[in-house]
Amino acid sequence: MLETIAVGNEVGKDEYEESVPALREELVELQHELRERGFSVLLNLVGTDTHGCEEVYDRLHEWFDARYLAATAFDLPSDEERERPLFWRYWRALPRHGRVGVHYGAWTLGALAARLRGDLDDAAFTARIDHVERFERMLADDGTLLIKLWLHVPKKEFKKRLKRASKDPLEAQFVDERDWLMLEHYDDLVPLAETYLRGTDTASCPWTLIESTDARYRDLTVLRALTAALRGALERDDAARRAAEVADAEDAGAQDVVPTGDVLSGIDTTAALEKGEYGDRLEELQARLHSLAARACAQGVSTVLAFEGWDAAGKGGAIRRISAAVRARLIRVVPIAAPTPEEKAHHYLWRFWRELPRAGRMLVFDRSWYGRVLVERVEGFASRDEWKRAYAEINDFEQQLVEHGIVLCKFWLEITPDEQLRRFDARRDTGYKRYKITDEDLRNRARRDDYVAAVNEMVRRTSTDVARWELVSSEDKRWARVRVLEVVCDALSARLD
Amino acid sequence: MLETIAVGNEVGKDEYEESVPALREELVELQHELRERGFSVLLNLVGTDTHGCEEVYDRLHEWFDARYLAATAFDLPSDEERERPLFWRYWRALPRHGRVGVHYGAWTLGALAARLRGDLDDAAFTARIDHVERFERMLADDGTLLIKLWLHVPKKEFKKRLKRASKDPLEAQFVDERDWLMLEHYDDLVPLAETYLRGTDTASCPWTLIESTDARYRDLTVLRALTAALRGALERDDAARRAAEVADAEDAGAQDVVPTGDVLSGIDTTAALEKGEYGDRLEELQARLHSLAARACAQGVSTVLAFEGWDAAGKGGAIRRISAAVRARLIRVVPIAAPTPEEKAHHYLWRFWRELPRAGRMLVFDRSWYGRVLVERVEGFASRDEWKRAYAEINDFEQQLVEHGIVLCKFWLEITPDEQLRRFDARRDTGYKRYKITDEDLRNRARRDDYVAAVNEMVRRTSTDVARWELVSSEDKRWARVRVLEVVCDALSARLD
């Protein structure tokens, strides 16, 4: 597959100079059209021709309107990156909608180097390919146009270029272990790369393989691939808009279908704790959590807690019982409200990725990524397609956290509508809690049936092996607080040495 | 000063429980009022009572509306932080307007630990105090309410608490070198802290010293200090609004005063290069820059280049001649357009701080922080007070870059109005450059006189020892590109071993 493209393609100077101006003009026109539509474009540059990748990387700054370009060359990860799940460094570099991101290396080089290094065995490499395929699909679904270019030179040429670089006292510093790994295992690399390229070559995120020995051929082919990809994205977007109009009409009928089965009604809302017992249990569990959190820090184990539940269900109170038990420097509480414009200009999971804690820390989300399939679904902020595919995206996200060794707990705090109303009334009477109640709370209350359907579907679809939902009755706040603490303590205990 | 506050203050349980509810209620009301006005609040917690600081840090999460709280405990810096100027880690943690930031340790602990460790001598410590004082004033000027709390316990108590923590196998990991340093040099620490506290105790950012031996006294005093500070900020804001109305009226007259002296007219706009000579010089300088950039990377020396100039003066072209010469992974070009809402919700320098490169990299700003005293001044986006004080803030910022060892060059590209018009016309005729011209460009052109005044004042006020302006005639693009390359090469040469 790779060797077959090395047929000695060349482009003469005349042809190059004749073709380039019109293509550049079209490229910039297309870039602006896509920008106006809020598309982001993400270009992945990678291949055996590392030198060529850098030359193309330079060209891209000339060809595109550089004001809307965001380029990242992925060197070896920093300590802040190593302490987070693998893809954190890629998430933090994602371009905002309307921008063209250029990534050199990124997750493709990461996967190949890890396999060559032996960090991944065959099975793990296959799993990584699946992971990448899902990750790229998620970006594409979110309106990102992914353009993946593999620049290829044969072994002899690769070796020649690498040797030349490594002998130059200044160039040598840029040759990192991954280059040598690729050369040393070139004969393994080619079939591995082919497996990877095939496994991630999908309809929405196809690969373009480019012979890179002749620079003019390479540049012209890249330029043509870019304009074709951008043009194609615009055409697909036109078609999608027409299709969306039809789908919206169908959607109106479909929304009435409430999924069967009600996991919430199975929660025992009579569970309660006496004040005295509560005090004892709270003290005991907080002391336990205090020490577990300290041990987790010593062992570099991070914890992520996600809290969902009805308004006034007592999320804040439960969270405070946790944060009061843990040393302040080890815990951070992130309340999730409506997204900022910056957050809106990214995939909805981006804001959660960027908050992920360093090794040994605890992060608590007061509301979470589940907003996508709760409030955004019910209020219509996300389209049917968007929230439907969110279940799989969320499962992927949580799996990555757990695979990185993070302790993940997610809680649904349940209260009855009557109890909720009592609490709203009580809040109105307590001065410093008045700010906690808004018109929105009352509006949400009116849509309880829609929310019940959404919660049920959420729990059924996202209770996975790696991340189970903990449904906690919060009718009695004391019971809920103790139960939450207990779950967190048990999860940490199970994970720590 | 510090020992005098240790007089054994205590608060009984009854007094505490009577006083707290009303204060908490007031605190939340004040927090929301300030939030609506777009104030940010930044609380610095520090002192010999490290244990008490963490307890208060917890309390703050209970007392404030935690949804608008952003807390950071500053441990030892990460590698990403160590590779940037000292204050980068503080900038990246600054709360956005409307939020309450809680910083534990931060620059106060940083300064004291550095002095005790011997990283700073007396003169450098004094300079650091000046720096902190200017930094805090800058935040205060920008509408941040700074509340600085020093929690104090006497040596005996400090020693007891630290020993107890260090003997506990789980607590011991949180005792870092800075704690031992403070204990070991406690007798030096007290006078140093007093010098620091006095030097940074200003009208807009005063210190509150709190005896911390009795937890109830400490908490109640903190709560009182917070409500008083927030209340005071609101009152000052009311007064400032009234004053601003008067000032605005005066402003209208003041804007006509054009500063004397015209540095721009001193630029020789006839400087030019023949095509042949240009080609030779360009090639030679790009080769030189290529190698210098690689050496800079090897030596961990970063470079920051700022480009300003008239629209169509050729900033982009000059920058491309630089980026084409440097390996793509070593250079990043950041075009500065109108700020995003996220950027607007911070100090105007925040967006530049967050972009600062890791060690050994080159960062190019296509337009820069000078927008504050150029477009924002002329178009009225910044008030007279804001752009007036920006000169000193910018000089401070640049000094920090240079003190960190960064090579800093700033360019003004000058063209005559006639040449500018010719280029606008030419752009309209070149398809792929059409997007580079906007109505704004034409509007700016009409205000050339205002801009000339602003540029003159900018150059005069911000050409400092550490960061001189390079005024480059760009009437002939070839001349400008070569000159820019030459300046960058010379600056790098001078800095490298």
* Mean pLDDT figure of chain A: 88
Rg from Cα of chain A: 26 Å
Shape of chain A: elongated
Q: How many E-type strands of chain A? A: 10
Largest interface: chains, residues each: A-B, 52 and 53 residues
pLDDT under 50 segments of chain A (min length 5)?
A: 253-258
**Numbering strands along the chain, what is their spatial order in the largest sheet of chain A?**
2-3-1-4-5
How many helices of chain A? 20
Order of helices and strands of chain A: HEHEHHEHHEHHHEHHEHEHHEHHEHHHEH
| Main beta sheet of chain A | 5 strands, parallel
Quickly give the structural class of chain A: alpha/beta
- In whole angstroms, the N-to-C terminal distance of chain A is 47 Å
Note the beta-strand portion of chain A. Answer: 5-15%
| Multimerization state | homodimer
Helical content of chain A, roughly? 55-70%
Keywords for this entry:
alpha/beta, 5-stranded parallel beta sheet, homodimer, 497 residues, 20 helices
Structure description:
The structure is a homodimer of 497-residue chains. Chain A is an alpha/beta fold and 497 residues long. Chain A has helices at 13-36, 50-63, 79-82, 88-92, 106-117, 122-141, 155-167, 177-184, 186-199, 215-254, 275-299, 315-323, 341-344, 350-353, 375-378, 384-403, 417-429, 439-446, 448-462, 477-495; strands at 40-47, 69-73, 100-104, 144-152, 207-211, 303-309, 331-335, 362-366, 407-414, 469-473. A five-stranded parallel sheet of chain A has the order 2-3-1-4-5, sandwiched between helices. The first copy, chain A, has a five-stranded parallel sheet with strand order 7-8-6-9-10, with helices on both faces. At the A-B interface, helix 1, helix 2, strand 2, helix 11 and helix 12 of A face helix 1, helix 2, strand 2, helix 11 and helix 12 of B.
